[in-house]
Automatic annotation (TrEMBL):
Domain Major facilitator superfamily (MFS) profile, first and last residues per copy: 1-189, 228-444
Source organism phylogeny: Bacteria, Bacillati, Actinomycetota, Actinomycetes, Micromonosporales
Protein name: Predicted arabinose efflux permease, MFS family
Keyword Oxidoreductase attached: no
InterPro entries from the UniProt entry: MFS_dom, MFS_trans_sf, TM_effector
Signal peptide positions (record): none
């Protein structure tokens, strides 16, 4: 489970997070622009769900391929190539008129995201020592969240003032940040570097700060998610909750704009509130994550945070005006951000370095596949009922899914501790590795 053996390369972390943040802003700028355009043109829930599905399906279908690409092809080549392709595709979206063409271009744009997500996620742990992993994860997540926060808000104001073409043109420029990051980042993996966490210039493989080998540790060649019961339980729980409450992504624009009568600008503000909460949660819980030496404890804490997300979805149906959703979404996002940090730290600790691209792609595919289920449910149900009762159903379904998964998670944790009885179940020295080792956001 290699990490950087030399001092952490924070300059590389900064370049990677900046590239991710700017490109993510472009992702959500384009997505929110298209969602507002569809809603304003009178399109129903099925049309919004169709665009969301087009933006999600490639992340699921291509995960086995893109995960292997991230592990076997030079990260610099992938970032530069995918960034250029996404820039051209987004520029095409600015001039596309036919709905079918728009959906096809959105799907192609998501193909680029399917490549860059596992590349960046697997690259960051190779830049830092184990003790710095939670901080680096929080930084990486913060950059993405700032992009998620800025994208919808910027789209709301730009669409209101300039229409849909200008925000999509700005989105096309944002993807060039990935190209610049690919050129400047010194840490590289994939290609001839896939056997260890290497950096440019011939730095030796990381060994001095590698996490200790354990019974559950697999070699990169035969690593499979299903062979790690604790990791499998964590991903399955996350995917189950997202499938249950994922419809909120389709329902939200109709709930805020039609049920509560808010403007496009207020919709952008409400959407950004959850993301701001995720950002705060990432830093708050990163401090906690680096003190835990037991992965099972992190996974169980994640269950409580997911429950907090579901409860905030339920509470949101009680508001009379859209602005009151802001504090509710902030709390939900706080829980969401903490769960994301826990999931990413657990995954990075438990997976061999040379297989991390596949691991992050597998988790991403599970999450995005579950989100697709939510999109389909939301799009279909909006045709027959109002947004408010659907939101109630999402919140209740999420809590029920958590209740179902509590026992399998606890069983996996007990089995983990039985194999590694020396693991501390509470806290330990900052950055210590336990017996072993999560965006899209969990609820968004």
């Amino acid at each position: 489970m290699s990490f950087a053996s030399a001092p952490s390369r924070w300059a590389d972390v900064g370049l990677a997070t900046a590239g991710r943040g700017i490109a993510t802003c472009g992702d959500f700028l384009a997505a929110t622009t298209l969602t507002l355009a569809l809603q304003s043109s009178g399109a129903g829930g099925r049309a919004v769900a169709g665009v969301l599905l087009a933006a999600t399906l490639p992340l699921v279908v291509l995960a086995p391929l893109t995960g292997r690409l991230a592990d076997r092809v030079d990260s610099r080549t992938l970032l530069i190539g995918a960034g250029l392709a996404q820039s051209v595709i987004c520029l095409g979206l600015a001039y596309a008129g036919h709905p079918l063409l728009v959906i096809c271009l959105v799907a192609l744009l998501a193909c680029g995201l399917a490549v860059t997500q596992p590349v960046l996620s697997a690259l960051v742990p190779s830049m830092v020592r184990p003790a710095d992993l939670p901080k680096a994860t929080a930084l990486n997540q913060t950059a993405g969240l700032l992009g998620v926060l800025a994208g919808p808000a910027l789209a709301g104001f730009l669409v209101g003032g300039f229409g849909t073409r200008v925000p999509l043109q700005i989105g096309a420029v944002s993807y060039l940040a990935l190209v610049l990051a690919g050129v400047l980042i010194r840490t590289r993996r994939g290609g001839t570097r896939r056997t260890a966490a290497s950096v440019s210039g011939g730095t030796a493989p990381a060994t001095g700060h590698a996490a200790p080998a354990t019974e559950h540790a697999a070699t990169a060649a035969n690593w499979r998610l299903r062979r790690d019961p604790l990791l499998l339980a964590m991903v399955a729980t996350l995917a189950g909750v997202i499938a249950a409450i994922g419809a909120i992504n389709v329902i939200e624009v109709f709930y805020v704009r039609e049920t509560l009568g808010a403007s496009a600008s207020v919709y952008g503000l409400v959407t950004g509130a959850w993301t701001l909460g995720v950002l705060c949660g990432a830093w708050i819980f990163a401090r906690l994550a680096r003190r835990f030496t037991d992965d099972g404890a992190l996974v169980q804490c994640g269950l409580l945070l997911l429950a907090g997300c579901c409860l905030m979805v339920l509470v949101s149906v009680t508001v009379p005006v859209a602005l009151l959703l802001v504090p509710i979404w902030l709390v939900g996002g706080l829980c969401n951000g903490g769960d994301n940090v826990f999931n990413n730290v657990v995954l990075a600790r438990r997976v061999p370095e040379a297989a991390r691209g596949r691991a992050f792609a597998a988790m991403g595919a599970a999450v995005q596949g579950a989100a697709m289920v939510g999109y389909l449910i939301g799009g279909l149900m909006l045709e027959v009922t109002e947004p408010r009762p659907l939101i109630v159903g999402c919140g209740v379904a999420g809590l029920l899914v958590l209740a179902v998964f509590v026992r399998p998670v606890r069983r996996a944790v007990r089995a983990e501790r039985a194999r590694c009885p020396q693991a501390d179940t509470t806290t330990g020295p900052a950055g210590a590795s336990g017996a072993g080792f999560a965006t899209s956001a969990a609820a968004r």
